[in-house]
Fold these 2 entries.
Entry 1:
Amino acid sequence: GAVVSQHPSRVICKSGTSVKIECRSLDFQATTMFWYRQFPKQSLMLMATSNEGSKATYEQGVEKDKFLINHASLTLSTLTVTSAHPEDSSFYICSARGTGRVGEKLFFGSGTQLSVL
Amino acid sequence: DQQVKQNSPSLSVQEGRISILNCDYTNSMFDYFLWYKKYPAEGPTFLISISSIKDKNEDGRFTVFLNKSAKHLSLHIVPSQPGDSAVYFCAASSRNSGNTPLVFGKGTRLSVIA
């Protein structure tokens, strides 16, 4: 099946630093990738939709200057949490919508647990 | 305002019995529904889906039922196995609206007891 690789799986950083999370579709091209975050016991909340070669579309309440998204190729999207603060600590998950043989399903990365001290 | 609701945060079932996980939605534009399974510290994995033109889809031990008039769907797992213990997310989308993302419920934690 289709594979989405997300890296790193866990990050612990100091307040004020920036963290970059990578999301790669390994065996299919993803023109659209989605970034979600999940707080404990909550649902997956969409942060932004990333389209290859264009600016990301952010959901209401998500600061685009704080969560920088780059989707420079059909297989790679990155999320950079700039000047991270403890309230940014969360589980971040990327996903890519399949095309062609894999259909329209959404495939998820394994997630990144971010802890900001 | 939650468009996809999973009202049971947890469910415990004995091994071998049937697990029934429920999901309700409010947006009548949704026409594609999916179930995902998630283990701790991992991303969700796709389990089964159903289009609004169907009322049932079966894949091995997993069956999803859709009741459009009630805006309700359910996932049946039979027989339940200890390895099925995970959080199950219901998700919905409106394919006619273009490349829209999925809307997820809060999840139901299933525990299958041996």
Entry 2:
Amino acid sequence: DAGVIQSPRHEVTEMGQEVTLRCKPISGHNSLFWYRQTMMRGLELLIYFNNNVPIDDSGMPEDRFSAKMPNASFSTLKIQPSEPRDSAVYFCASSPSNREETDTQYFGPGTRLTVL
Amino acid sequence: AQKVTQAQTEISVVEKEDVTLDCVYETRDTTYYLFWYKQPPSGELVFLIRRNSFDEQNEISGRYSWNFQKSTSSFNFTITASQVVDSAVYFCALSDGGGADGLTFGKGTHLIIQP
């Protein structure tokens, strides 16, 4: 079975440019999460969706960040304009809603973003 | 507010030694879930175990075992007869259950197994 798919795996961009990260959750999973990992702050939740609806975006650092989930099999995280402090690994995770596994999140391989 | 503390930033042991990674959590919820994830040098996050707040039974999976104690709000992870392949960063995490909520992660423990 395919796991969570993220693209690109690596992204290098210059300050001020728009960056779009993509995620395809595991088929049948109803919840999708975006996390960011940095040395200073560790792993932190940015936003999560349930049945394609954003539930909690309190972790989104500022208005430059936006996330969408137009359908059950695709989500994007956009940064516009990007800044060097956005450099991090961005993880997407998905979770099933069946009773036995609620809350178990399965992570994608991550996108390593470098903003110069 | 939820909080997960992994006080051990880095642990280094020689292969075949047993090692325990500590995790202490804080939550006001009576229903919650605890997790351990492994992050090897390749960078992905690998799910290891999920435990709900009503199940305090210890769990063993091969060389891995977990000890959940609500009285001390701890969920410790022990690797028996460690191997070099166990070298990774290990994260403890908490969610408040009741649906698909985000995880609160500890800062992680970097485990180094020396040959």
